[in-house]
Amino acid sequence: MVYHRIAFFIVFQFLVFQAFSQHHHEKNNPDRPLRVEISVTSDNETHRVIPCGPDGILLFFRSQESFDEANTKWYFSYYNQNLEQVWVKSYPIPKGLDIRDFQSRPDTVTLLYCTSGKTKDRENSFQILRIDCKHAMFLKNSGNYPLDGEISFFGVQKEWAWIGINSKGEAGKIIQLDLNKGQLKNIVLGEGNQIVLRYMKPDSSAQFVTAIVSRFLTKKTSEHYLVHYDTTGKISYEVLLSSQQNDHDLNRFQIARTPDGSDLLFGSYTQGGSGNSGKNKFPDESTGFFSSRIQNKSQKEIKYFNFLEFKNANILLSEKDILSLKKKALKKNKSLGEYSVDFSLIIHDPITWKNQLILIGEVISPQYHTENFTEFDYYGRPYTNSYSVFDGYRFVNAIVAGFDLSGNLLWDNAMEIRNIISFERLPKLIPYFSGDDLILCYSGDGKIATKIIRMGEVIEKLDFSPNELSDPEDKLINESKSKLFYWYDNYFISSGYQEIKNIALVGNNKRLVFFFNKLRFEK
Questions:
Q1: Contacts of 289 (CB under 8 A, 6+ apart)
Q2: Are 479 and 445 within 8 A, CB to CB?
Q3: What is the spatial distance between Cα 431 and Cα 448, in angstroms, rounded to a whole number?
Q4: Which of 22, 26, 232, 354 is 20–30 Å from 194 (CA)?
Q5: Using CB atoms within 10 A of its CB, is residue 267 exposed (0-12), middle (13-18) or buried (19+)?
Q6: What percent of the chain has pLDDT over 90?
Q7: Does the global pTM surpass 0.85?
Q8: Least confident range of 80-94, 260-274, 324-338, 484-498
């Protein structure tokens, strides 16, 4: 018992994210963080960084410069491990296109641009830009997707790219593109106009793409299929998926490939038997996780894991709420799993680790504020009107669960997420494995948050380390659009927009910048 206390104390004391010394600003000062700052006019600009393996980092953004009447200059810069700029180039991107998604592999980054806003010009409505970072080479492919289409998924493997499209009033489709030959094929998901693509991921062999396709039977009921399409667009096999319980509706999907070549289906479900939310929409809120094995082209038993029954449910809900539900269940002679407190989730891809599959879901909640304004009636009398303004999604918690290769729940845990609001429904939490430990971390508010768990047991509680600024006299006023990326070994990159004040400077002592720092994890 004493040994565990001492070990816990040592881990707690030495768990830090350390910033490196800043090379390009203060080469002779090793106490400065290794950090790049770029002056900006607002945090609505398009700066992004993408790790490109251990050799470097790609930075890119849309400039205010026109290449010609049809194109805008986007600037791309490549930095080495010491955040020294290796090269910088501009490249023309059509003015109607904006960055939608990306795929990163060592030395190569593939960017997907698509039309933004309600534009009617659909000539070359998407562009795929491949960047060989080592040699500063750019290759592009262009194409079109339906006028009312929405890009839902993007995947790249070897010389192939796949774009998943959902369209109003039409069956969804997958655009398959041979990047070397420029040949494009449309894979229509089925007959009828009520077919939606729910999940899509190409296999690492690039021989087929796996999809989850949902077909509406009525406005409130649907059926789901797991489908494998080969590179000719033909279906190699499909499996009808069943919830196997009438009051359980599947609403989020992920797929993991097991060592024996079968598929393990993961996701979240809604409990209550209400079916879809109506008008051909799927329920957004989730009651818990589910798993189901797909073997020999058939679905095996499906297993449900209600969040209320998780050991760490007290992190997701207050103890008062859980106690109230337990009393309610006991009074009605029911189990706690027959109740639900639903969450809106962003689910990560499953992670294979030490003969386990790790599933992470981030709980989000839409946030609004009310604005009031005064108007006057016909007689000139003032009255107040108010309306709600959407501020973005507040990230609240992360739910983490470990499963064996048969889909049985081994352990669970959760992590609080503080002070993050984003318009993007994209994951914020970064999982990192060190020995037997799973480190959960995110960036926000000028800090790096970390928590260490081991098979569901907490080794290090939620802790925060400062994300160092360039100068000791710098004071952070505000940070937005924070991101944290795993880079290589035990190194990370944090980025975002910061408003900084330095009272030691005379005159212009405030600055707004886009930044990225190199961080090292130690314990």
A1: 266, 267, 268, 269, 304, 305, 307, 359, 361, 399, 401, 409
A2: yes
A3: 13
A4: 232
A5: buried
A6: 53
A7: yes
A8: 324-338
